[in-house]
């Protein structure tokens, strides 16, 4: 009976590690896509140090999970105590790091509110100044998602230092409609847009557009994160049980 339990645990351990291996592969692929994606994300990520760091952290975590899943599978099938102990220690460190990141994300969630982004935009946005990282990032976001400001074009009316002429409204050219949503895309009617003709402007705020675009993916990412944490926890339990059961 003890031998049957050990055999069952070994294959369950292999199964859990196989899922960790797949999860690591997905994170690795997602990290690579965010960094090299040519549709606008690469420019946004590169311009924002926080996103740039986050993309590489995701890449590193994916590579580590990929490797640990592979080692866990090998340790379970070959019943190697050294590999199992190595796997347990590193998966424990990753588990604690992910748990800490989730707690920090919950604590600082107020920094992702509409009011926070509106305040930051009004304080730091410099319109077409592409040498400024903040302004360049916002312009890239507005062009990529065909949106304007956080809530809409009215956000820019309260920015006193925007260098626009008396013939132009406060709306920056990044809010103007383009035939193709990229920096290389031709404007539908730039002059009319800048003079305040609404039908040539992107009127919807970026907060709503991005929230609607990523709402499904946020819930999916949250569910995936919970699933990964549960799998890691069970994998650690099986690893220790298998480690103690191997003679």
From TrEMBL:
It is found in: Membrane. It comes from the Eukaryota. Pfam families: Tetraspanin. GO terms for cellular component: plasma membrane. It is a multi-pass membrane protein. The keyword Membrane applies. Keywords: Glycoprotein, Membrane, Transmembrane, Transmembrane helix. The chain crosses the membrane at residues 12-36, 56-77, 84-108, 217-243. Belongs to the tetraspanin (TM4SF) family. This is Tetraspanin. It comes from Orthonyx spaldingii. The gene is Tspan18_1.
């Amino acid at each position: 009976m003890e031998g049957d339990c050990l055999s069952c645990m070994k294959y369950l351990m292999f199964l859990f590690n196989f899922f960790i291996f797949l999860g690591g592969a997905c994170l690795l692929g997602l990290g690579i896509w965010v960094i090299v994606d040519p549709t606008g994300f690469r420019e946004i990520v590169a311009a924002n140090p926080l996103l740039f760091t986050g993309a590489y952290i995701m890449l590193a975590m994916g590579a580590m999970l990929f490797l640990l899943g592979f080692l866990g599978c090998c340790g379970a099938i070959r019943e190697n105590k050294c590999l199992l102990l190595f796997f347990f220690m590193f998966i424990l460190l990753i588990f604690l790091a992910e748990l800490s990141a989730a707690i920090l994300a919950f604590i600082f969630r107020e920094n992702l509110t509409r009011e926070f982004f509106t305040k930051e935009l009004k304080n730091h946005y410099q319109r077409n100044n592409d040498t400024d990282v903040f302004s360049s990032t916002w312009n890239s976001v507005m062009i990529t998602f065909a949106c304007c400001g956080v809530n809409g074009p009215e956000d820019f009316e309260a920015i006193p230092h925007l260098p626009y002429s008396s013939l132009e409204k406060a709306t920056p050219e990044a809010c103007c409609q383009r035939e193709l949503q990229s920096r290389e895309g031709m404007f539908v009617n730039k002059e009319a847009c800048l003079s305040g003709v609404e039908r040539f402007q992107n009127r919807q705020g970026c907060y709503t557009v991005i929230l609607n675009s990523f709402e499904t993916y946020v819930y999916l990412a949250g569910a995936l994160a919970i699933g990964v944490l549960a799998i890691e926890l069970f994998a650690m339990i099986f690893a220790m049980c298998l480690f103690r059961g191997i003679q």
